[in-house]
Design brief:
By secondary structure, this protein is an alpha+beta fold. The chain has one domain: Defensin A-like (2-Layer Sandwich), CATH 3.30.30.170. The chain contains 4 helices and 7 strands; from the N terminus they run αββααββαβββ. A 4-stranded antiparallel β-sheet has the order 1-2-4-3, with helices on one face. A hairpin with a 2-residue loop joins β1 and β2.
Length: about 140
């Protein structure tokens, strides 16, 4: 059987038809918290939106933030109410750290992940590339 094309012709055709790489490789942007203060309390107005965007339970993100801020708080509908005054930079830094450690796939960098608990270990499983990586328990450190 004789091929109509040779390897080099097919390769050249493939390379010329590929779309150009985007200059921005990380299309996902970590959201900034929208804060307001009432008396001595800090309210994260878009808390539910952030947890939904991360595809994580609001309770898990709540526990992560309150533990690291050393502040008690409550979830009230779509808002997180913290019983301390907290700066925008502190909240944004913690949200970004949570994203890097517990949402973003360490292999491909996509945010399409789920956390799976197996025994005492927690794994981040990427729905995009299929990679599985162990992570620290977000509530322990």
């Amino acid at each position: 059987m004789v091929d109509k094309y040779d390897y080099k012709q097919l390769l050249h055709r493939l390379m010329t038809n590929l779309p150009e790489k985007s200059a921005k490789s990380d299309w996902f942007e970590v959201p900034h918290a929208v804060l307001s203060t009432v008396r001595r309390k800090t309210i994260v107005e878009n808390f539910k939106e952030i947890s939904d965007l991360f595809q994580r339970e609001p309770q898990q993100l709540y526990m992560y933030l309150t533990k690291r801020l050393g502040a008690a708080g409550t979830i009230d509908g779509n808002k997180l109410i913290l019983n301390n005054l907290v700066s925008q930079e502190q909240i944004d830094a913690l949200i970004n750290k949570y994203y890097q450690d517990y949402v973003r796939c360490p292999v491909c960098g996509r945010p399409d992940t789920v956390l799976e608990k197996r025994g005492r270990l927690i794994f981040i499983k990427c729905l995009a590339c299929g990679a599985e990586s162990p992570v620290k328990n977000p509530l322990k450190d």
